[in-house]
Every structure is written in structure tokens, then in C-alpha cells.
From TrEMBL:
KW Iron (keyword) present: yes
Protein's name according to its UniProt entry: Uncharacterized protein
Location(s), subcellular: Membrane
GO biological process, one term: lipid metabolic process
Amino acid sequence: MLAGEPFLYWFGHKPRICIFDYELARQVLSSKSGHFVKNDAHPTLLALIGKGLAMVDGIDWVRHRRVINPAFNMDKLKMMTKIMMDCAQSMAKELGDLASKSKNRETEVEFGKKFRELTADIISHTAFGSSYQLGKEAFQAQHALLEITMETFLHVQLPGLNHLPTERNRRKWMLEKNLRRSLMHIIQLQLASEGSENRNNLLGLMLDACTSNEEGGKQGELSLSMDEIIDECKMFFFAGHETTSLHLTWTVFLLSIYPEWQERLRQEVLRECGRDQYPNANSLAKLKEMTMVLLETLRLYNPALFIQRKPIADITLGALKIPKGCAIVIPVPIMHRDKKVWGEDADEFNPLRFQNGVTRAAKVPHALLSFAIGPRACIGQNFAMLEAKSVMAVILQKFSFTISPNYVHAPVDLFSLKPKFGVPVILRLLDE
Ligand code: HEM
């Protein structure tokens, strides 16, 4: 599909309008008037992820965002870089051990799976600190629930079906109960823990902001309820796991087929972070070409396929009259390849377009919509970029890689943009 005229289509009995125009998208996403709210989530999805930050609107959203913001401030994220590095180093060691066993010091790795494991590890550690093992179990239950949800996502929703004690429903109820119990246990452990050291994780920082009483609540009262905190924990995993894993997977894919860029980035990493040293937040901040490649990967292989909003009253948007409640769909990957905005080479991999920064990469300053724009833009974008840089720096320090002959190029829309058959890569240990 190419960027073009807006069109209307039906999603079940609900109308949706798809727009491709950057100016209209900016008006919808940057509006601070409260005219546009999130589109209704599928009920099974809502049951799974609850009403975390990404799902709430209005004053509830303001309250949630105020509590969660401090956890994503750059100083706190810099402290989390060490954890990201530790997890990446441990994956690299495992892969290095495998490669060193073979005569030519190489091994085939399916990076889609590897990065799903790694990013689950990173989000468990950064979200829950010392309770990461419990957190990992909670996330495993959440992942199993997501798989059940995916199986039934496109089924017709017959009323009452979700309440029948079928085998699938009973498994779902059991997983939901375990997930809630584990998250509640972790929250109570954190609330009981003394000292800021133990609270330098996303949950701990969120709890600190919750109890700081800036909201004018009573002493000892949380500004989010226990259920809301549980939903935010689910949100960390739901919003921050798959997206980052896919971003890394597509980056490895692109660097495998553009060896000149792979070598450029390796030289930059060796120059700024050294060969054996542990990269840290300061050295990662100097990786300009790495940032360009990561942004170009997001442009070409954006994990999120659509951003959606709906107006709360009838509204005129450019020449369009949109009735209250009609969903507006912004198809990000298609807009990211619009030649009128990105130039004739929009379909090509050209990280240099980002050399003067994100806002100067295309003909409009807000052309990159990967993390959305406006008040509801991704709260985790700095986290995601730091994580991607940490992992790629460690990989480039130790290995070179090429795409495996078994690779089949088949990006598919499965909630997000996934490589259908994974990304198998031949990974080779660099000489010491
Ligand atoms: C490459 C990685 C990521 C991508 C491409 C991405 C993309 C997005 C996008 C497009 C939105 C806006 C959705 C909308 O407006 O409907 C969003 C919102 C959000 N993201 Fe991310 N995200 C990434 C990583 C993360 C991480 C690591 C976290 C947390 C650990 C996170 C947490 C959130 C949350 C909580 C929101 C809702 C913000 C709000 O509504 O105020 N994301 N993300």
C-alpha cells in the first residue's frame, strides 16, 4: 500500500478512517485539548493488560503519567544502563562460548528468539530490581496469556463465551490469578524494602512517586490504587518488551545485509567505548552513527503498525468531517516510506538522512512517528534507545555477522511488525 488519499473502512460494525497526511496526523496526535482519545482496545486485550498508562485518558492519564514520569528520567535511566549491559554481556558470553567450540569460531543464531529472551531479562531486572526472578515468572505468565489472547483475537466475540469453563478459559483464569498474585507479592516486597538502593528500578521509582504526596493525598496513601499499580507493571512488559526486541532484531537484520554500516558502527564503538571496556551511559551517548542506524531501522521496520485515536465529538480535520467515535488510523510504516516527505530514496536504507538529527531527516520535522508525537508520545523512548545501544555495542565489540542462507524475508503484521521466520544470522567471534 502507498501513502495516498484517506479512506473509510469498517472494522466489524465500527467505521475507521485511515489518513496518510503528516499535517493531519500532527493535529490529531499533538492536540492538547482532549478532543482525541485512545481508540477502544479489543476487550480480550484490555482484560490482559488492564488500564495502564497507555490505555487511560483524561485526568486519569494525567495522574498516571505524573507518577510514572520520574522512573523514566534520564538520570535514573543512566543508572539502569549497567543492568542492560550485564544482561547483554551474559548473552554475548553464551554466544561466544558456542562460537568458540566450532573450528571457524562461528555459530548460527536466530536473533528474533535471542532478543525476545534478552529483552525479557532486561525488563525484568530494570522493572523489579532484586525481585527480577519473581518478575520474570510474572512476565512469563503474561506472555502465556498473550498467546492465548492471540489465538482468539480474530474470533467472533459471542456474548458469555469468556465465562464458560472451557479448557482455554480455565487456563486463562489460572494464569491471570497467578500473575496478579506474583505482581502483588513483588509490590509488597518493594514497599517493605528500606533504602533507595533497593528502589532504583521502574517499580520502586514509581512507588516512590506514588507515596511522595505531591498529589496532596493523606500521609501513607498511594496516589495510584494497588490495582492501578499492578496494571502499570503489566504495561512495562507489554509496552516495553516486544517493541525493543523487534527493534534489535531488525537492526541486526539490516546490519547483516549492509556490512559497510556494520563495520562503521564497530569502528565507532571501538573508538568511543574501547574493545574490552564495559560501555557506560557516557560512552554510549557518543555513538552518533549508532543512533542514526537505530532511527533508520525504526523508520523502515517500525514495530508498531498503527497509531489510533477517536474524536469525542464531531470534528473537521482538514477537508474531512469525522463523526464522534469514528476511529482515526495513522499507518506509520506506510507514512515512513512516503517519497514526498522522505525523498526519492525513502525505500532505501540510508542512515545518513539522520545525520543532522531526527527533526531534519525529512521535509517535515515530525516525520518519524515510531514513538508517536505529542502528549501521548512513548514514555519509554529513551529507555528503548539506551537498551538498543547497549546491546548493539556489546555485540559489535565481540562479533561480526552475516545473514544466514536460511533467512527468508517475510515481515508480517502480527500485532506488530515481525519477521515471520525469524532472523537467522551467522555470528563470528572477532579475533582478540
Ligand atoms: C522501540 C521501542 C518502542 C517503540 C517503537 C514504542 C512505541 C510507542 C508508541 C508508538 C507509543 C504511542 C502509542 C499511541 O499513541 O497510541 C508508545 C507509548 C507508550 N510506550 Fe512505548 N515504545 C517502545 C518502547 C517502550 C518501552 C521500553 C516502554 C517502557 C518500559 C514503553 C512504554 C510505553 C508507554 C507506557 C506508553 C504510553 C504512554 C502514554 O500514553 O502516555 N515503550 N510507545
